[in-house]
Design brief:
434 residues, alpha/beta, TIM Barrel, 2 domains, two-stranded antiparallel ribbon, Xylose isomerase
Length: 434
């Protein structure tokens, strides 16, 4: 066991007027809104890697965190880390967590050694999950940190690396199923290229498509009931990644006939790197029928890399949940905090406070999104703006042709005048709720 969180009481809801830094001010898990408990709407999950495996390094400096489970090089320290993690889940009242295989077992340098470690930790996790009631939102494989992945996993030019990746994913899917995971995620951190000078893009895309097809085939073979998710990201660590954004991923899924099998796990920080807003990525995935789950973090808008910070902007979060609610809300997905402390935030209390604040921001934004939907102002504005498409003439154009449409323009002397998009009015409307 560990006393990492010694002396800290379980986090409780104290209301908006509380000044306690370790209390929820807006997130009341048992509050019923829109017919469901807040906990069941938001489905919060802690990211095991950034909360417990990350040591505080960045591209310009090494480790700043000194945890009792460092160095993370044995099963004993892996179990100590798990003890601390599940203690934090208990203190936060966290319903879910997520993990990579490399976060929870030591790297042995061989697949057999890694597999043995993962299997032992899967059993250990099962016991901890029974004790705490915390469930697994999703599992995944780390195929980007070790040097073997430097040229990719499924897209690697070396077929032995492809084989190692396939075996690794199988082991992680097995662990996810054994722990009752509700999703399985693939993030291709190295599935891209540094330069086209040494890259056969067509072959790599075909290999990536076949690999994902194998994942889907294995899901059905073992009877895994969870959702397979792909996480888009445009760059960093690779110069260019093949899963650039939601639209790119959908095109990839369509090309390989997987659009009915695979959905997307979207991250705010990745959306920013792609030059998009998070609401754009969510709305795109929802429109294409592939929305699955979210990593709710943010990037520093003054930095050009993935800073993975906890959410603190209620208006941004509100618009994200607005589109999630419009799409029907979460099913197997949820709100994962793929976020990490700043390198100078060293204490156990900092780790708890970061999650408390992030959960409060999400709860506040979620309630604002519900209020916007209940008001219906944006939906009314959209209905009015596109009302012309409800006329018989407009509908008929889809069964017509260019020549017929041209003749109608001439006959009816059509000469459209633009109408206002009312952007500022809609921005003012949103600000009423946030």
């Amino acid at each position: 066991m560990t006393d990492f969180f010694k002396g800290i009481d379980a986090i409780s809801y104290e209301g908006a007027d509380s000044t306690n830094p370790l209390a929820y001010r807006h997130y009341d898990p048992d509050e019923v809104v829109a017919g469901k408990r807040m906990e069941d709407h938001l489905r919060f999950a802690v990211a095991y890697w950034h909360s417990f495996a990350w040591e505080g390094g960045d591209p310009f400096g090494g480790q700043t965190f000194e945890r009792p489970w460092h160095p993370q090089d044995s099963l004993d320290t892996a179990k100590l880390k798990a003890d601390a993690a599940f203690e934090m889940f208990r203190l936060l009242g966290q319903p879910y967590f997520c993990f990579h295989d490399a976060d929870v077992r030591p790297e042995t340098g061989t697949f057999a050694g890694n597999l043995a470690g993962l299997q032992e930790m899967t059993d250990y996790f099962g016991t901890k999950m029974e004790e705490t009631g915390t469930k697994l939102l999703w599992g995944t494989a780390n195929m980007f940190s070790h040097r073997r992945w430097m040229a990719g996993a499924s897209t690697n030019p070396d077929p032995d690396v492809f084989a190692f990746a396939a075996a690794t994913v199988k082991s992680c899917m097995d662990a996810t199923q054994a722990l009752g995971g509700e999703n399985y995620v693939l993030w291709g951190g190295r599935e891209g290229y540094e330069t086209l000078l040494n890259t056969d893009m067509g072959q790599e895309l075909d290999h990536m498509g076949r690999f994902l097809s194998m994942v889907v085939e294995y899901k059905h073979k073992i009877g895994f009931k969870g959702q397979i998710l792909v996480e888009p990201k445009p760059q960093e660590p690779s110069k260019h990644q093949y899963d650039y954004d939601a639209a790119t991923c959908f095109g990839f899924l369509q090309k390989y006939g997987l659009e009915k099998e695979v959905k997307l796990n979207l991250e705010q920080g990745h959306a920013i790197l792609a030059g998009h807003s998070f609401e754009h990525e969510i709305a795109t995935a929802a429109a294409l029928g592939v929305f699955g789950s979210i990593d709710m973090n943010r990037n520093d808008y003054q930095s050009g890399w993935d800073t993975d910070q906890f959410p603190n902007n209620v208006p941004e979060v509100a618009l994200c949940y607005y589109h999630i609610l419009k799409a029907g809300g979460f099913t197997t997905g949820g709100t994962n905090f793929d976020a990490k402390l700043r390198r100078q935030s060293l204490d156990a209390e900092d780790l708890l406070a970061a999650h408390v604040g992030g959960m409060d921001v999400c709860a506040r934004g979620f309630k604002a999104a519900l209020a916007m939907l209940d008001d219906g102002g944006m939906e009314q504005a959209l209905a009015e703006r596109y009302a012309g498409w409800n006329t018989p003439e407009a509908k008929a154009m889809f069964d017509s042709d260019l020549a017929t449409i041209t003749q109608r323009v001439l006959d009816d002397e059509i000469n459209p005048e633009p109408s206002s998009g009312r952007q500022e009015q809609l921005e003012n409307w949103v600000n009423r709720f946030v």
